Each structure stands twice: as C-alpha cells, then as structure tokens.
Amino acid sequence: MTDKTNSKTPGLSRRSLLKAGFAAGAVAGTAGAARAAGDPLITEIQDWNRYLGDGVQARPYGTPSEYEANVVRRDVEWLTASTESSVNFTPLHELDGIITPNGLCFERHHGGIADINPADHRLMINGLVDSPLVFTMEDLKRFPRENRVYFLECAANSGMEWRGSQLNGCQYTHGMVHCVMYTGVPLKLILEEAGLKTNAKWVMPEGADASAMTRSIPMEKALDDCLVAFKMNGEALRPEQGYPLRLVVPGWEGNMWVKWLRRIEVGDEPWHQREETSKYTDLLENGKARRFTWVMDPKSVITSPSPQAPVSHGKGPMVISGVAWSGNGRIKRVDVSLDGGRNWKTARLDGPSLSKAMHRFYLDIDWDGSDMLIQSRAMDEHGFFQPTKNELRAARGENSIYHNNGIQTWYVKADGMVENVEVS
Ligand code: MTE
Ligand code: CO
How far is the CA of 108 from the centre of ligand 2 (A)? Predict the structure, then answer.
C-alpha cells in the first residue's frame, strides 16, 4: 500500500503532549472513582487474597505466569521443508527493555539442536599455531572471563520483506534478532595460548552439530571483540543457543556466531565454505554476488503498536515503543514518523546504550484516533542510518534476501488494528 492520503498527523506539540498528560490523569481518576463505587474486583475478596498460595519450591526453576502463555517463539510452517533446518522468531511485540529472556531467543538451526554433555565437549585450536590445543569446558573456565551485552541478528532477518510487505507482525518480519548478556573468554586469549604463526590471518570456527557449521573470520575481528561464551543472561547457554559453547561475533551477521563450537582452525586465507558462497551472499542486479557482508547495519522496528499488538485503548495518550541496533556501535538517534515518512520526531532512547546491543526507544503521543502510517529510522554513532526500502532496492536490486535494514511501515487504523504495509 503506498497511499498516504488517509493518514493524518496527530498534534505533536509540547503543549498537546502536556495536555495529554493531564488528560491521562483525569481519565485514570474518573475510572478509579467508578471502580471504587462498585467494581467487585475491589469490593469483594478474591481467591488469591482468601487462600494461601503455593509455597517456595513449588517451581524449582521459575517459569512465566499462565496468563503469559501467549508470549512464545513462533515459526512459519511453510517457510522451510523441515524443522531441523529452520527458524523461529522472537516475540518482539511482547517484550520491553533491551534484554531478550533466554527462553524467547529466536532459534536458527541448520541441522537441529545438538544434545551435548558438557563433560564430553572439546574445543580444538589447530592450523597456523605454535601448539595445537584441545580444551575441556573446565579448562576454558580457568581463563579470565568477561560479561558483555550484544544483539545477534540473522542476515536473513526481514528477508521475506524485500519485494514488499509479507508477514503480519514484527515477530515474523524482525524477530530473527535477540540481545543477551554473554559470559565468556575473549577469543584473543585462547588464540594467544596456542600461539599464532606470523602468517595467521583468518580463523574458521566449526560447530559440533549435524550441520558442522563453518565460517571464515578475519584475524583482526577474532582478536578484537569475539568471545567464546558459555553463559547467557547469567545461566548456562540454552541447548538451542549452542550449549555448552558458542562463538560471539559482536555486530556481525548471526551465521558467524557458531553454536556448539568444537574447533577453531587458523589459516592464511578464507576457506570459502558453503555458508559464505552459495549462502549468505547478496545477489545483485548485475548477476554478481556480493560476499562477506559481515556487519549488520543500523536497523529498528516499532514493536508496539504492531500487527500482533493492536491499540486497544482508543484515542488519547499512547506509548509507541520499539528497538534499534547497529553492528557499527551505539545507536545515537531514532526518529519516528506517524505519516509514512513525511514528518519525523526524535524518539526517546531509554535504558542502557551499549555498543552493538539493542536500544529501546519510545515516542509518547496524544493519538487523535485517526489512521497513522508509523515508521522508525535508526542512526548510529558513526552516522549510518536506515534507508527506505526503495533506496535499498535501488542500490541492491530485487534479488536479495539477506541484509534488509529498510524502514518498516505499520498502518494503524482508526479502530486500532495494525497492518504491515509498504510506503516507499
Ligand atoms: N551454528 C551451528 N553450529 N549451526 C547452525 O545451524 N546457525 C547460525 C548461527 N550459528 C547455526 C550456528 C545462524 S544462521 C544464526 S542466525 C545463529 O546461529 C542463530 O543463533 P540462535 O539460534 O542463538 O538465535
Ligand atoms: Co542466520
């Protein structure tokens, strides 16, 4: 849909926001008075108040409330032929802040989830090193370790949206991203332990899963900020995320973050494996394929309102919320448009602003109840910003799948329902 005529920008002046604030207070006050007058939830004692609840240890490992049963990863069955080589998506529309809970991190496997007893896991370093080494998990935990928060985005995130709007929900259009705190050992320390030969220029991590995932990574990156991680958000990696060991390659495409990491070969040139030739390259208009697009450029999406998170409250105060990230570093600014990109407002970034991590943004508006075409546009600290989808297609053609960081549009209708549309 490219029609912009039915959109109207609600008043956005500082005065109208202040007015909205007052209105919110007044509305809450009135509703509060009405409830006190006769709402049985207030006037009658409820079961959870009358009876004792479960004691400690009813749930030795805590799980979400039964009322949150809808907050789950989801897949799209027709996308892949089998679930072992497939993907599911993070429910971005249900989350807030910048950290993805472990159980909700999207999964992308090429050969299913490897089931590995950590006691049987080994990490081998071989190739152009002074002494080839094999580490147990115990060995790795004796190196100095670090804690860092990073986003991981699959290069194929938003791939289905290249030619136009497809999937109805930010979970599906943008949910191949997660952001967690990793605990791990800098790869540099492990490579130094083995001793690098002078012609050591590349590393090739390899997974222990049935797909034996391999990728070539230049030595500068390996020595810069890569981690060999064994924990996420404080607890052991989940099996889906590579238990017991995964490579963390900050800011670079998810495919390089090898899970179930069992070997790192050191070499003097890239290996040109399947995942960096026939896959994860960008087919351009002239028929040539661009290889080694490692850095994930700045990107953002409004998570609420969005197709799976429609507006239920009618006009008045509304929180527009979303996430932004950049493989180049920190997010400096996110702009939000309510009219399909004609006018932009700078959103409020909230929470920690960490390099190569997710950032949370909000725009608090006074919705006049009319249709909106809402968009967000992220800019990182190096001045890189998100292109429109047309700008992206002009540069890269129609054939691409990977590395789509184009601006997303949601059509918010007067009745509060939201649809995935494209404004180019
Ligand atoms: N590592 C191995 N060993 N096997 C895999 O299938 N998938 C890759 C990468 N590492 C993969 C892998 C891809 S394409 C992505 S996007 C990320 O892992 C996904 O990480 P996640 O499952 O933790 O979200
Ligand atoms: Co991927």
Answer: 6
Nearest atom in ligand 1 to 240's CA: 22
Q: Is 259 in the pocket of ligand 1 (CB under 6 A)?
A: yes
Q: Which of 90, 100, 110 to mutate to test the pocket of ligand 1 (most atoms within 8 A of CB)?
A: 110
Residue nearest to atom 13 of ligand 1 (CA): 255
Tens of pLDDT along the chain (424 residues) come to 333 333 333 333 433 433 433 333 444 444 455 556 789 999 999 999 999 999 999 999 999 999 999 999 999 999 999 999 999 999 999 999 999 999 999 999 999 999 999 999 999 999 999 999 999 999 999 999 999 999 999 999 999 999 899 999 999 999 999 999 999 999 999 999 999 999 999 999 999 999 999 999 999 999 999 999 999 999 999 999 999 999 999 999 999 999 999 999 999 999 999 999 989 998 998 989 999 999 999 999 999 999 999 999 999 999 999 999 999 999 999 999 999 999 999 999 999 999 999 999 999 999 999 999 999 999 999 999 999 999 999 999 988 899 999 999 999 999 999 999 999 7
Beta bridge partners of 367: 316
327: phi then psi, degrees, rounded to nearest 5 = -75, -10
* 200 CA from centroid of ligand 2 (Å): 27
Instruction: Give CA separation, 129 vs 138, 158, 217, 385, in Å.
Output: 22, 39, 16, 40
Q: Which residue has the tokens 């919110």?
A: 24
Ligand closest in space to the Cα of 249? 1
Interval between CA 152 and ligand 1 midpoint (Å): 10
Number of other CB atoms surrounding residue 225 within 10 Å: 19
DSSP 196: B
Protein residue whose Cα sits closest to atom 9 of ligand 1: 255
The best mutation among 107, 213, 249 to test binding of ligand 1, ranked by most ligand atoms within 8 Å of the C-beta, falls on: 213
Q: Are 405 and 392 in contact (CB under 8 A)?
A: yes
